[in-house]
Write a structure and sequence with these properties.
Order of helices and strands: EEHEEEEHEHEEHEHEHEH
Number of domains: 2
Number of strands: 12
Length: 244
Amino acid sequence: MRANYKMQRLFVPDDLGPGFELDAGQQQSHYLAHVMRLSEGAEVLLFNGRDGEWSASIAAKTKKAVRLKVLTLQRPQPPLPDLVYCFAPLKQGRLDYLVQKAVEMGAGILQPVITQHTQVAKPGIDRLRANVVEAAEQCGILAVPKVCEAEKLERLLGGWDKERRLIFCDEDASTNNPLPALQKVSEKKLALLVGPEGGFSDDERRMLRALPFVSAIPLGPRILRADTAAVAALAVMQATIGDW
């Protein structure tokens, strides 16, 4: 069932069920009361990443707070997509974009990866998670992706699940067409790795190519910015061997 885009959607941490009541957060209360100017009785949609999507009505409101009453289940909770998205953190504005698009494109786990050329060694995990929630609210997504703490590339690969195929974007690939390499992938468990602005180092590229669970793909004849490459790679991967 597709999302109802005519109603305001809010992510809440509370449990959801028929007749439950909860207080909207401070920012959400301000948004509902003073930006949307919703009155008592108006309905919104709530989700928490666990209990599906529920309609709820504004039971009471003051200048600073809005209380919501949960009504009926609108969509059941789907499972989290089984796609791990590994990425080298970028500078803030472009990192926000990258994370939001990864959520929209069906990533289930977001894994920041520190490579030799990574510009941001300690990404703000709370901000990444806030961007994930915002993207889920805007795009009708119910299974909210998990954001992991950043890991160095070598450590990540050392503990990798060998049954999960890791596809990495290789700017030094000998062809421009990613389809032949993707069409050879038979595993159902998938992950994508996108490098930093400066690309992977020669040592990192050799390390990745030597691993049996890794496949390298090109992204066409043009040089793409890292955030553009992330969207392009997710799109071609989902269309060829993903859930499209």
